[in-house]
Design goal:
- The protein is globular.
- Helices cover about 25% and strands about 40% of the residues.
- The longest helix is centred in the last third of the chain and has 14 residues.
- Strands 1-2-3-4-5 form a five-stranded antiparallel β-sheet.
- The protein is of the alpha+beta class and about 140 residues long.
- The two termini are about 25 Å apart.
């Protein structure tokens, strides 16, 4: 289901709750909503569509990856960049890392650990900030 983008700062600043297997439909809603915004969006967090759960979706080039309860376990090579967000007006400068390691559950509820670099790593970090109530 395509959901509207939340712009309520107070809602977006809340820390997200852990996702469960019962939240798989949220992953589909994120896929549907990202597809509509693909021309100017590469990732989303569940709170951006009004659901306060630890779920993100990231476009990693050839596919979209839904992550349930992602945790960054390693990061290297910090740099400064500028980002924008569908939920916020304008762009902001922020610190990111060129390479990150993330542990998460996939859509079959299998635990995975993957290393991401470049733009994929940056998008994941942005969406994980959303899960922690951090607005850049």
């Amino acid at each position: 289901m395509i959901r509207p983008i939340v712009k309520d700062i107070f809602f977006l600043q809340q820390k997200a709750e852990l996702a469960t297997r019962d939240d798989f439909a949220v992953g589909q809603d994120l896929q549907d909503t990202l597809a509509v915004h693909r021309d100017n969006c590469l990732g989303m967090a569940a709170n951006m569509i009004g659901i306060n759960k630890r779920i993100i979706i990231v476009s990693i080039g050839f596919t979209d990856l839904v992550m349930y309860n992602p945790v960054m376990t390693a990061k290297t090579q910090p740099y400064q960049t500028e980002e924008s967000c569908l939920s916020l007006t304008g762009s902001r400068t922020t610190k990111r890392y060129r390479e990150i390691t993330v542990t998460f559950y996939n859509q079959e509820w299998q635990k995975q650990t993957l290393v991401f670099t470049g733009l994929s790593a940056q998008i994941i970090q942005h969406e994980m900030d959303h899960l922690n109530g951090v607005l850049i």
